[in-house]
Amino acid sequence: MDLHGVGLGIAVTGVMTWLGGTQAAGVLWVELGLLAIAGGLYVMWHLPRHSAASAPSAIAVVRKRPAPSVGSGNLGVVLCYSAFGFGYIVPATFLPTMARQLVSDPLVFGLTWPIFGTAAALSVAFAAHRLHGWSRRKVWAIAQGVMAVGTLLPLLQPALWVLAASAVLVGGTFMVTTMAGLQLARERMPANPTPLLARMTAGFAAGQIAGPLLVRLIGDTRVAGWDALSLASAAASLLLATTSIWLWRDGIASAPKQQST
Q1: Nearest to 153 by CA among 133, 139, 143, 167
Q2: Closest Cα to residue 191, out of 54, 66, 63?
Q3: Is the Cβ–Cβ distance between 243 and 79 less than 8 Å?
Q4: DSSP state, 104?
């Protein structure tokens, strides 16, 4: 899986939406649809021709291998990945909305998505070249902690530069978190990580759905002067920070201890 492509895709679509912000919404949808079709054709053209022929034998091998139980020891990992889904989706969905509340010019508030996607693409390259020797759990913990700062910043000061910083911090960590989390799952269950990966992915998807739903459920209600976006951002920050600490502390506890001489 090429994680660079996700960030580049967000950056390209963000630039298209940003530059076309003065167009009608229908025109933008058509342009983005054409871009998606072009991407799909590119993938189909570059797929290995022998993949379909070799699929049955590969499936047979997987079926013969007994699938180990995920086990209760991985519940914390699944919950942390679920919290990541919730924490990431709040700014990923609503940062342009927050920026639009400050300035109505689409050429200004629309910059959040290109910034978000560019940070995602660059962060994957940085992690691949600089963090390859690090513990997957610690990389995940650090990335999730930095993301918590990114979701917290808009609560501290409503300013465009704060939202830009939030886009960099969240965009620059969500793909690293994805990479580290999935790699950790493979480390924990090297024989067959599929069951754990499936639970983590399902938890992540549930978190993604829960974020916008929470904003919708809160609606126009205000608590201590905070609106729905502020309350959701606060919940995201708390979940991300808590799970980041758990990942870091659990990583230290599970690390092999050196015997003193």
Answers
A1: 167
A2: 66
A3: yes
A4: -
> At 76, which amino acid appears?
G
Compute CA 183 distance to the chain's CA centroid, rounded to the nearest angstrom: 14
Per DSSP, what are the bridge partners of residue 226? 223
Query: For 171-227, how does the pLDDT look when each residue is reduced to its tens digit (9 = 90+)?
Result: 999 889 998 999 999 998 888 889 999 999 999 999 999 999 999 998 888 888 888
- Crossing angle for the helix pair 160-188 and 194-218, nearest 10 degrees? 150
Full-model pTM:
0.79
CB atoms within 10 A of CB 194: 15
Torsion angle of the four alpha carbons 242, 85, 9, 6, in this order, in degrees rounded to the nearest 10: 70
Residue with tokens 């679509």: 13
- Domains recognised in the chain with CATH numbers: 3-254 (1.20.1250.20)
> How many residues appear in the chain?
261
CA angle 241, 247, 251 (to 5 degrees): 150
CA neighbor of 136 nearest in space, from 83, 188, 71: 188
- Residue from 168, 135, 130, 166 nearest 151 by CA: 166
Q: What letter represents residue 38's amino acid? A: A
pLDDT digits (tens, 9 = 90+) for 109-142: 778 878 888 888 888 888 877 777 788 899 999 9
The rounded Cα 86 to chain-centroid distance in angstroms is: 9
Handedness of CA 186, 175, 203, 43 (dihedral sign): negative
CB 209 within 8 A of CB 93: no
Q: Are the beta carbons of 181 and 240 closer than 8 angstroms? A: no
Q: What span, in angstroms and rounded, lies between the C-alpha atoms of 203 and 34?
A: 31
